[in-house]
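Notebook B, p. 112. Complex prediction, attempt 2.
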Amino acid sequence: MTGSYAGYAQDTVPHPVAAAVTKDTAAARTLRGVTIFSDRTNSVTPVQSLSGEALQKMNSLSVADAVRFFSGVQLKDYGGVGGLKTLNVRSMGTNHVGVFYDGIQLGNAQNGTVDLGRFSLDNMEQIDLYNAQKGVVLQPAKGFASASSIYLQSRKPTFKEGESMHGKVGFKTGSFGLINPSVRVEQKLNDRISAVVSSEWTHADGRYKFRYTNGTYDTTAVRENADIDAWRVEGGLYGVLRDSSTWQAKAYYYNSDRGLPGPVVSNKFYNGQRQWDRNFFFQTSYSKKIGTRYSMLLNAKYMRDYVRYLDTSMITVNGAFINRFKQNEYYISSANQYKITSFWDVGLSADFQVNNMTAVNLDHFAIPTRYTTLAALATQVHLGRVDIQGNMLTTIVNETARAYTAGKDYYAYTPTILASWQPFASPDLRVRAFYKNIFRMPTFNDMYYTTVGNTNLKPEYTKQYDAGFSYTHNGNGFLQFFSLQADGYYSHVKNKIVAAPGKLFRWQMQNLGSVEIYGVDAGVQLSPRLIKTVQTDFSVKYTYQKALDMTNPAEANYKDQIAYAPVHSGSFIGHASWNKWEVNYSFIYVGERYFLGVNIPEYYMQPWYTSDLSLSTSFIFNKKLTRLTGEVNNVFNQHYDVVISYPMPGRYYRVTATINL
Amino acid sequence: MTRTFNIYLVVLVALAIFAGACRKGPQIVPPVETPVADPDSLTNGFYLLNEGNMGMNLATLDYFDRSTGTYKRNIYSEVNPGATKEMGDVGNDIQIYGGKLYAVINMSDKVEVMDVHSARRIGQISIRNCRYITFYKGKAYVSSYAAAQGDTNTGEGFIAEVDTATLQVLRKVEVGRQPEEMAIVGDRMYVANSGGYSPPNYDRTVSVVDMNTFTEAKRIDVAINLHRMKADQYGDIYVTSRGDYYDIPSKLYVIDTKQDIVKDSFDLGASNLCIKGDSAYIYSVEWSYITSSNTVSYAIVNVKNENIVTNNFITDGSEKQIAVPYGMAIDPASGDIYVTDAKDYLLPGTLYCFDKTGKKKWSVTTGDIPAHFAFIPR
């Protein structure tokens, strides 16, 4: 049973395959109960996945909540429904994580980060986190260009025999004044084209209690100005042409209005800043196989992003302080793969991207435009049980500015080598290793932001070495599924650009220098059949990580753990389904950290650990599959900060109802 | 036996790991004491206010106990464990008046008022976006960036008059935009206006406030983005302009308060300013976007003759150890020179003590962004 949807999760072709191919077994699966895990046994690089099945069962609202359960990651979370949530993999920094939505990277040239809190799980089919990169040859050059990548795969339309339209409506509510209705409609337009429209509205007052104490004072207050009102709508067309090539087109729009609650400091628990976002993109891809040897994948995207920031506590000569930022991104990509022999593939990918940005009310802003050209030559060799992939990526960055000084042009060649070996006849066990050298460019904020930007910033380089293994076994007896993964790694970050938090996107930029990171990511997932009628799944993940500042031997932070990196962290998920009932328990642990780079008591932050519980039931109501879920999150009401002075919610509740139409 | 022992060991180790993994009870971070100098029971010590990074609630108070020669880092939390969320966010000024110690905590919208000898909290003065404090005839005067007239005007700031006994704001006078330091000559207060919220449209005036009527009498046009301000003993006021960080450099101006005119200026990129007797000590850190680097100098201006005496008052070469000078004070008794190094703003800073000839005596680790001094009078 596991295999059935592990199968569709395992598309080694990095583009969404066409609608018509997959059969709808979703309803059946929900009722029958299967393991929530999906495996990718033949991945060359370390990968962690959460399937739609698992996502549905976890106590998560957004992608950000879900990715916390991966090992080797830290989620920087400013708290609440509307708080910024960004992902950092193996302490190399958020900017080194490529986030791909349906195969194409989500970019933000202004700050280089993607707020994962804005991507609802409602519409997700699969989330995969790859260290190094997705281990395939046929992918856009950008797929080779990040130190690690997270792939968000939205749900594709699927139809039963003879069915041409169906949909799903959902409603979530709970603490923080959350109101979150969603709707999804899938329509088969003809034999070759199907369409999907998905939309949701998220509204929350964002109020929650938080508590700070030092043992003598003990203050409980309510988080204010953390409200959010966000609307997402996206539509996609999925098609198969006569020559069996496939295409996809997608439009996405996100609009939000939120309060920025700011840090909670002595005598000031309230901040009045607000932010408005409008993000639109259109992306399309086309995939074709010519003969048995040649495959191609074409991608194109246009993105427009608008941010308005208001601070009523700063009164300028023109009234309250307002910033407006506008960004455009244009992107085209061509990826090609040619099978020279049965065991040898080569690939060539070329991407071209233009990013520009304007800002209103930002003194001395340069109005930059960045042209990025990426070309990747990749190859893959299967020699018996050994798989080797290698690629050389060429990056050329040209920058111009309409006013003031532009950053310097830059080019670099960066290699990656991935290898995996299957030591035994059974494919269950694989040993793997990789080396990757890659960099990230300074963002527009790093370079041009008034009084903090620095056009002389150098790109930030990472070198990664990783060795590990994965063992995955599907069975029919007591253990339905078992997987064990462990990787040891060493990474070196050079010319690290560090942002000291001021206000939201106001930072002090500096090349911190050098960080050495070594650690172990390990995970066990198993689905034992403890009782015949009860399906259970367990996942345990653990991360050990030392991320040491190696910049200056004379300085107090030399060889100290860098800010916000815990040495120990981990997660546990336990899930059981019986008949039409399911219960899920999840636990996250993040060990002690320091909010600045010197490991002294003044900068110490307590470990935090939260337990989340949920109970769901599915039933047929009026011939419609209906599902109800109740959640209690942070059951033990622990008060903690992920980011210093940004309190996280204590215990909170959520109720979800969905009806398949 | 061995087996039982092993099981116990495993349980013990597991417990230890679990205990280590759990949260400690809430704790107060104790001060760190470092001996730096020989005990001197004849002179009083001083307080040093560390600004702390914005948003981190990391303003801390250090105390140099001269009677034991000990530097005590981070004393506030231990002395005042009941103060909610400790001292606050971004310490911007510290002064002593009468028996009280006043620390202006900018992003916490308050002036923290403490006992001068124990640093025990007495109360607070609530003033939004407060910047600097000065005193005149038994009252405290606090400058504030906050708009005096609400949200409808063009953002003129104000000076609040505070009763030092009740800690209540008595009156406010509107001055220029985003006022910084103040200086009092005779019965008039001079206020440096920055206009820092509206670059490149900075304010370029000094407000003159008549202290008898507590009204703004006039404004003197000086230069953009004014910041530091000190009066000398000859009726002149020294005021610094930060420049625009791009094309207009930082400069030092002299105002003649008899005529209220700018009578002199120096091409010194002045970041901080202290006057003792006839010597104005000035250091400058100037960031140039053209060269993308900082230029640092340490100058003394003779305020009587109005000429530059030296461009480097640190004479033993130890200024090379200082990455970013951020605070400065001259010991009123000995004439020792104190300079702080804020480093990259993310590391604990360093306080350097030089004798009056500019030779290093000692240095010590401080809190985050060490910046402002208050010497306890004898």
